[in-house]
Structures are given as structure tokens and as C-alpha cells.
């Protein structure tokens, strides 16, 4: 620890130096609350307790603060690393304000969904511990949201070479690991609930509601809900997801997938889906046009061989171009030119 802690501190400070005020403020708040946890039960006052969200308490501020509350060193390290990764990889694409909105949306959704899940568990079991003994806190919910966002932006990137693991598989692999640790009673249920609801809420927000220059949401095929699962399960998961989406569309929670037709394009009619990049579509169109022009040029080169008819017309033009014979030219030479002009027809 004495050897590697200064190096880790140096790398963290270097990564944090290139981020915005939003990431620095959130990191400082998480560090401050961790230091306060040695003397104060921060998870009680700032973490989400399902029973205290209900009337007459209404501790609604905990929905915003629970994501910054850490009471263990490994939890603080994970939260700071998550904030640093979001600042370096997502903030340049979204901007500081959108990153802050994403942080707030994910944490509020995790608090509400986890509290609802524990309330339903209490209804099924009538154990008050599910309402008042559970503390939902920590940055694992936001970690799940960042992993989903990285799957959206750089899903084909390789995270591990041996064994080969791509970024698009990391969210579900970590969920599976946490589920196994929960079955072995090595982590508490609120850890698994925070991360799982962080995955779900971030995907819903990025899929349907996030605003950007191309419209709202990302309806591309590579970001469908079924792509989070192995390929053998994707048809079944896709069918269930489509049924759920259809129900949510009818109750006006989600919106339909809308195709946009750009009839004002300069060259031809282009069809684009919400969430696709127009620049990428234009690049593919230019490559297709270039390939088509090269094929047409090769066809023209192959058909450029001279024919007998072209030779006959060329000789005729050369023979008839002089309006009068040149000085010193005999009539026999003129007759030879005429005879040579008629030669191809005689052949």
C-alpha cells in the first residue's frame, strides 16, 4: 500500500485535473462525506431508507444525496473512479451540464425504484426491516449508468484481451458477479439493487429521453435491450422487450420508433433513424458514390476500343477537311485522297 498508494493518488489527481467543475465538485463531496462517516452516520441522514420516503416523513432529499454516501474505502475508490471515467469519456461528448443531469436522473431513479422494490417485499413478507433497516447508498448505481453509456458510445472496444471481453458485455458481467456474491452472502442486497436499477434507469433515459443534436434518445439496433444479453437469449428477450415497450407506448410512458425522411438532402432522399449520426450516414453515402464512379470508369475504359465505323468517320473527316487543294498539289493526288476515302467501303 505504501508503494502503490502515492502512484494511484498521482494518477487520480492527473485524471481529475482535466475534468470540469461538475466532476471535481461531486468527487470532493463524496470524499467529504466519507470523512464525515467516521463520526456521523451519513447513511442514515443522507441515504435512502424506504420507509422514510413514505408519509409522514418524506425524506426526498436523500434521492439526490445517496449516490455520494460511502462508508467503506473500496466504495469510495469505486465512486471516485466512476466519476473520473465519466469526466474523461462522457463529458467531452455530452458536456458538463448533461453529465450532471445524467447523474441526477440515475440516482433519483435508483432511489425510487429500490425503495419501491423493498416496499413490495415488505408487502409480501410484512417484515418492517425492509422499510426501516435498509440503507440504499453508494455510487454503484451511477457506475451501472456509466457502463451503459460506455456501451452506447464504445461498445466494440476491447476491455480485456485474455479472455477477450468487449465493453458491451461488461454491464451484464458485473451484474452476474454481484448476483453471485449476493448468493454467497458476501454483499448486501442494497448493493445488487443499486447497481441493477442503475443499469435499467440509465438505459431507459439514454434510449428514450436524452436530448442531443440529433433529436431525443437512441433507437439504434446496437443499443436495444436484448443486446445486453448473450446472443442465444436475445430473440426471447427481444420479444418480451417489444411487448413491454408496446404496453408502455399505449400508456404514453415511452414513444414509438419514428423514421425521419430528409427530402431536402442535396443529392438524393436519405432515410435516417433517431439516434444515428448524419455525418456517418453522409460518409457512407460518399463512399458508395465513389465506389460507383470507379466501377463506371472501369466500364468506360473497357468500351473505349476503336471500331471500324469510328475509323471510317475519322478518315472521311481528314479527307474532306481541305476546302481547296493546296498549292502544287496535282489532281492525281486529290483523286488518290478520294480513292483512299472510299477504300474502307470497298473493303
UniProtKB/TrEMBL annotation:
<feature type="region of interest" description="Disordered">
    <location>
        <begin position="299"/>
        <end position="347"/>
    </location>
</feature>
<dbReference type="GO" id="GO:0005794">
    <property type="term" value="C:Golgi apparatus"/>
</dbReference>
<feature type="transmembrane region" description="Helical">
    <location>
        <begin position="126"/>
        <end position="148"/>
    </location>
</feature>
<feature type="transmembrane region" description="Helical">
    <location>
        <begin position="97"/>
        <end position="120"/>
    </location>
</feature>
<dbReference type="InterPro" id="IPR035952">
    <property type="entry name" value="Rhomboid-like_sf"/>
</dbReference>
<feature type="transmembrane region" description="Helical">
    <location>
        <begin position="12"/>
        <end position="36"/>
    </location>
</feature>
<keyword id="KW-0472">Membrane</keyword>
<keyword id="KW-1133">Transmembrane helix</keyword>
<protein>
    <submittedName>
        <fullName>Uncharacterized protein</fullName>
    </submittedName>
</protein>
<feature type="transmembrane region" description="Helical">
    <location>
        <begin position="169"/>
        <end position="186"/>
    </location>
</feature>
<feature type="compositionally biased region" description="Polar residues">
    <location>
        <begin position="329"/>
        <end position="347"/>
    </location>
</feature>
<dbReference type="GO" id="GO:0016020">
    <property type="term" value="C:membrane"/>
</dbReference>
<keyword id="KW-0812">Transmembrane</keyword>
<dbReference type="Pfam" id="PF08551">
    <property type="entry name" value="DUF1751"/>
</dbReference>
<dbReference type="GO" id="GO:0006890">
    <property type="term" value="P:retrograde vesicle-mediated transport, Golgi to endoplasmic reticulum"/>
</dbReference>
<dbReference type="InterPro" id="IPR013861">
    <property type="entry name" value="TMEM115/Pdh1/Rbl19"/>
</dbReference>
<feature type="transmembrane region" description="Helical">
    <location>
        <begin position="192"/>
        <end position="209"/>
    </location>
</feature>
Amino acid at each position: 500500500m505504501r508503494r502503490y498508494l502515492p502512484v494511484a493518488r498521482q494518477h487520480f489527481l492527473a485524471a481529475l485535473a482535466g475534468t470540469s467543475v461538475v466532476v471535481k465538485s461531486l468527487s470532493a463531496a463524496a470524499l467529504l462525506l466519507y470523512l464525515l462517516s467516521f463520526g456521523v452516520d451519513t447513511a442514515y441522514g443522507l441515504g435512502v431508507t424506504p420507509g422514510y420516503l413514505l408519509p409522514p416523513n418524506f425524506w426526498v432529499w436523500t434521492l439526490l444525496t445517496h449516490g455520494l454516501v460511502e462508508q467503506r474505502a473500496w466504495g469510495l475508490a469505486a465512486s471516485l473512479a466512476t466519476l473520473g471515467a465519466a469526466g474523461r469519456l462522457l463529458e467531452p461528448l455530452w458536456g458538463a451540464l448533461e453529465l450532471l443531469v445524467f447523474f441526477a436522473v440515475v440516482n433519483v431513479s435508483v432511489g425510487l425504484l429500490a425503495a419501491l422494490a423493498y416496499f413490495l417485499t415488505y408487502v409480501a413478507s410484512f417484515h418492517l426491516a425492509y422499510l426501516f433497516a435498509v440503507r440504499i447508498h453508494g455510487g454503484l448505481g451511477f457506475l451501472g449508468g456509466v457502463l451503459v453509456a460506455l456501451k452506447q458510445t464504445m461498445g466494440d472496444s476491447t476491455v480485456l484481451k485474455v479472455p477477450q471481453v468487449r465493453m458491451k458485455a461488461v454491464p451484464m458481467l458485473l451484474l452476474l458477479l454481484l448476483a453471485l456474491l449476493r448468493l454467497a452472502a458476501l454483499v448486501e442486497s442494497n448493493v445488487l439493487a443499486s447497481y441493477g436499477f442503475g443499469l435499467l434507469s440509465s438505459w431507459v433515459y439514454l434510449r428514450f429521453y436524452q436530448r442531443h443534436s440529433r433529436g431525443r434518445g437512441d433507437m439504434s439496433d446496437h443499443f436495444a435491450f436484448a443486446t445486453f444479453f448473450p446472443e442465444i437469449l436475445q430473440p426471447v428477450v427481444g420479444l418480451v422487450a417489444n411487448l413491454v415497450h408496446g404496453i408502455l407506448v399505449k400508456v404514453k410512458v415511452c414513444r414509438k420508433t419514428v423514421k425521419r425522411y430528409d427530402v431536402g438532402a442535396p443529392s438524393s432522399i436519405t432515410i435516417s433513424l433517431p439516434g444515428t449520426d448524419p455525418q456517418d450516414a453522409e460518409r457512407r453515402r460518399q463512399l458508395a458514390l465513389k465506389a460507383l464512379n470507379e466501377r463506371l470508369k472501369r466500364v468506360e475504359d473497357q468500351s473505349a476500343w476503336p471500331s471500324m465505323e469510328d475509323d471510317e468517320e475519322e478518315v472521311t473527316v481528314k479527307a474532306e477537311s481541305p476546302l481547296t487543294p493546296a498549292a502544287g498539289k496535282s489532281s492525281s493526288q486529290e483523286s488518290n485522297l478520294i480513292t483512299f476515302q472510299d477504300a474502307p467501303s470497298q473493303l
